[in-house]
Model the fold of this input.
Amino acid sequence: MTLDVTVVNVALAAIAKDLGAGLHQVQWTVSAYSLAFGALLLTAGALSDRIGRRSVFVAGIALFTLASALCGLAPNASTLVAARVAQGLGGSMVFAPALALIAAVYDEGAARQRAIATYAAIASAAGALGPVVGGLLVEWVGWRWIFLVNVPIGVAVVLGALTRMPALTPLNTARGLDPLGALLAIGVLLSLHYPLVMGPDAGWGSPQVLVPACAGAVLLVALVASQRRPGAMLDLELLRIPALSGAAVLGFLARMSSLGVLVFTTLWLQGASGGSPLEVGLRLLPLTGSLLVVGLFTARLQARFSAAGLVASGFAFQGLGLLALGAAAHQGQWALSFAGLVLLGTGGAILFPPLMGVAVGVVPAGRAGMASGLTNACYPLGTATGVAAFGAVFSSRLGASLAAGPLPAEAVRHTRAAVETGQFGLVEPALRPLAHAAFANAYLAVCLAASVVCLLGAVLALRVLPNPAARASRPSVREHSLSLKESP
Done:
């Protein structure tokens, strides 16, 4: 599910050429999936508590697999975009109850920590592996196979889920399905995602951005009002648990500072090396490798250190990695970029498992699906916010650096348009040193801004996440999570 967010990026040009569509139209194959995926996460998580998590999971895999087949066989761009919407909906139905399924099958303790650490490491690495997998498939067998390869995998997962995954009895059947709440939740998340996706191209003051943003604010008020009645879909009381709401915010910040910067890191690696998407993917292997390798030891770290300490350390590693990457781009030192990618991967590997464990560990078992959906909904929203916010920083700094040089206005516009997409080959040879310097300055500004987000995350983690030492020194403080966990 995470892989399909990034695997399509390297195939956009091939898709546009094969289907005879404009590149801007084909780019909706990326946006459509992300929007549909993010919009349904909260609703799917809450519904899985009522109708069964395995049922929602299997239905999501089936929909995702069917939609993948339709993507691979699409005769035109419109069909491809529609199939990507269905693929995103299926992906959210799989992703939303995933943590709750793990928490239900594995008892609390080392077994659960190992399971969540494995899940988090693979999910995090998959996003960064997208360019590698996409590059291999596009170069070897064609762009359609980035979708068709999902079909046999999806069939195997459905069969495995039906035969190996226990059919757990829903524990939260007292609440109804609440169609109004479900639709409002989808509308809120969609209204939050859409402006972030459209803002960089349409302009932040355009009606395409302002109208859905205002609609999202209205829908959010309506959602909160509708969920205060008995039998509503969402349990707003869960948001009063500091650890749960803190884990959701920290997950948002973590995705913002990691995957939100990945697109600019990929552009830098491709522009600096002049390599193909596959070569860029291989250059990202220090990041994906550290995610997977360090992830193998995360469960042991969780047994020794508190969630607050691990998450704060993860943000610290990510911040140092971002500073190293910014310095590497500015100084042209590949050894420093290798260290930065390793630090970035290490931070992600030790940061996400404790967050996921806290999200499903501080709520009653019957509401774990909603907790999983809530925290998972913050992940793609954090990625979209990071791309949008850091994109504004990048564009502003790039424009200022180019304008400060001796270039005429027309040359600045042409060079900026090429550099923003990493296409240094379109820049006049005499201007390439200036273009590379301007890109490095802009990327450094992005890394500095993202490192500030990491600092904020580290401070927040120490304040809101479970810390046994802090609780021992303040025994009189009443924990919301304890009272809710004891409730029927």
User: Anything to note?
Assistant: Residues 470-488 have pLDDT under 50 and may be disordered. The domain at 3-166+235-486 is CATH 1.20.1250.20 (Growth Hormone; Chain: A;). The chain has 24 helices and no strands. Residues 368-403 form the longest helix (36 residues).
